[in-house]
Write a structure and sequence with these properties.
This protein has helices at 26-53, 60-67, 71-83; strands spanning 87-95, 101-107. By secondary structure, the protein is an alpha+beta fold.
């Protein structure tokens, strides 16, 4: 799967702003607009954690814990940073608290 471009049908300002699909329900657009003011700051925090850990990677859960956010808030920001070419997926994996294998990310 290729992540360096906006998903088909997504807003044209992605990854600089949270995206939503044009054919998505109105609530998707409203949610993207609601988090937009915080998203830039959250992306900066995510990137700072990954730069500090470089060259090691961190999972979205580890990043969320480090900056005090929910993983559900961090994962979209990681995707936006990846689409912008600022972070990259490593070949390494780790286990999350639930024991599942998760991707590790690092600053590009």
């Amino acid at each position: 799967m290729h992540y360096n471009t906006a998903p088909e049908g997504a807003t044209t300002n992605y990854p600089d702003s949270p995206g939503y699909r044009h054919n998505a329900p109105e609530t998707s657009r409203e949610a993207a607009e609601a988090v937009a003011p915080m998203a830039r700051n959250h992306r900066a925090q995510v990137l700072a954690v990954l730069k500090e850990a470089y060259p090691e990677g961190r999972s979205s859960d580890q990043i969320a814990y480090a900056i005090g956010l929910s993983p559900y808030s961090v994962r979209p920001r990681v995707s936006e940073l990846q689409a912008a070419g600022k972070v990259e997926r490593t070949d390494d994996r780790a286990k999350n608290e639930g024991g599942r294998s998760v991707v590790l990310w690092r600053a590009a």
